[in-house]
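Task 17 of the worksheet. Students: predict the tertiary structure of the chain below and write it out as structure tokens. Keep your answer in the requested format; marks are given for formatting as well as content.
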Amino acid sequence: MNHLHAGTIEPIRHELLLIGGGHSHVAVIRHFGMHPLPGLRVTVLSRDVHTPYSGMLPGLIAGHYEFDDCHIDLRALCQANGASLIQGTVIGIDRERQQVLLEDRPALRYDWVSVNIGSRPALHTIPGAGEHGIAVKPIDRFLAHWHAVTGELAHQPRACRIAIVGGGAAGIEVALACMHRLRTLPGANAALVSCDLVCAAPRLLESHNARVRAFFDKRLAAAGIKVHCAHRVIEADDRGLVLGDGARIAADLIIWAIHAGAASWPRDSGIACDQEGFIRVDQSLRSVNEPRLFAVGDIAALPLPVAKSGVYAVRAGMILAGNLRRAVLGKPLRVYRPQTGFLSLLTTGERHAVASRGRLFAAGRWVWRWKNHIDRAFMARYRPQPAAPTPRGEEPAMRCGGCAAKVGSEMLGRVLADVHTLRREGIVHGLASAEDAAVLLPPAGQQLVQSVDYFRAFIDDPYLLGRIAALHCLGDLYAMGARPHSALAIATIPWAVPAVMEQSLHQLMQGALRTLEHEQVTLLGGHSNEGAELAFGLSVNGYAMPQQLLLKSALRSGHALILTKAIGTGTLLAANQAAATEGRWIEQAIANMLLSPRVALEILRAHGVAACTDVTGFGVLGHLQEMLRASEIGAHLRPAAIPVLPGAHQCLARGYRSSLHHANRIYLDSLTERIESSKDTDLLLDPQTAGGLLAAVPAEQAERCVAALQGAGYPDAAIIAACDPQISAGRVALC
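Model answer:
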């Protein structure tokens, strides 16, 4: 259970921010999930929801693993362990204000912060490297590029010349994996594939023993990989590589696996770094000049240098977790002593591997099976078991909060100081007036359209909640054909120490304001209070000429019904609370919820829209029935045509349904034929957050309207139903 929700007895007193989802931080997340520290909120900041396990990357490249086999789903891991996940890109740290600066969203305050963002090849050291080729890190970008290459070659085999720069373990494993994959593609011709491996050192794998080096020399030769040792790459261009002696290596694809480089923002933020930009830490993994900051893994520069290897990050995880706990409690920190050597298990392209440590050498398929067992055991540790679905008829735990006092005026004043609203005509007194109520002057001849909505947090990011909730609340105005004008907000903030409450309110309001500004809506004021859990809503105002209003009662024979967005948010969000979804499913659901109805309404108007509603709590079937009853007509509904979000079918099949889902079964009575199968009906009843518009247009305009919607950024828009006067009023026939 996240700290944003009811049931948190201990108020939040400390904020721990984990920057990056590296091998050490996943151990920290799990540690605080198993041994929570009362009053501590753990928040993970990550650009990506899926964090890769680098030890399995060569196997993924070679085709032995699928994506999910070797990626940790941070959203599920955080949800299962009571941590919050915020997806974003860190651009710096304000040490004086104790804030982490993020790209395209407000900064986040911290009491303690830890950095585990790894490293990436130092491409800036070679002219042209950044523009030509692809680095093995960030892994997600490399994989996207690699899959594009293999997909193209599988579809149309052709010559492919690969050049890999880097003679360490990573470069060699990637080279062998690439060659194995390309030569096992359907229709592959080994003669069309070539690979050059370039190494500045006099020999490969200098840190390994002679038997290991000799083995890989033979293995590379057998794979047809030409090795160039003692050759420094001085430039890359669109033809390939330029070496220090002037020689060239032609390449269609350049892969960079060179020495590690650091992100620039730690040094730019005034954090003490070594000459290469890695954060200098002491023996307890704490920054040497910022006592509230810790760093681990490749990004950390330890007092005694160690190799940039994931092995160290994995083993440092529990030391880091313990020291973060001790730092919060004000206890002495423990010393981290990295091992002086470790066992390396190196893959060779096929399901075959080499074991190397000191003078030890072993090779064979059994080594690969051993490595595979170790890797899968590591991944299983961070793949949480989902909570069971709530049995039908039972109330979900901690469903609602209670009443509370208002948020303090000083805190509110500081938050409002950052609120910059649009100036609109017709606002006599608004947020800037500090009056007890807002005063509006409606435009001549237009009608005032009002709506209100308010709900508990459904995601652990107040900023994102504010953005989505604001769009959800505005949906009723767009569905009525009104132009949104202004809004009043109401926010409930979980009780915590003042600094934590202020941050939650600030993030929430900035998210709502981002949406309101995009929609050209002015925030007039609002109300805030303390409560058991985070909740937010808006009372929204809009205007429309009487003839522009879109009513549910205007359906007629010959109308086709278009849905502008995919459905499935109800079951996905319910499953997410139980850590039973995949991170990518929630990413796609969030993107769907953030899609504004404004442009969709403009397109619908251009195609003769006659009636409209937005699909929210009552699901597709409930909102369709409202329109049919009001219009005294029936309709054919095509369930197979309804766009569905990825993962929604799976979540429903596993039994995850929102709390309103069961109540929506009343709408099954509108069907002309009773259908008991949940497979055919559950999605029709799924409540939506910030759902799409359900709009009626003349049937002859429907196809053109859908094409226009899809071209304007509504890829899931579809014709799902048609009005039919032969069907009884308010009834739905499935077809």
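Marker's comment: The longest helix spans residues 498-518. The first strand starts at residue 14 and ends at 19.
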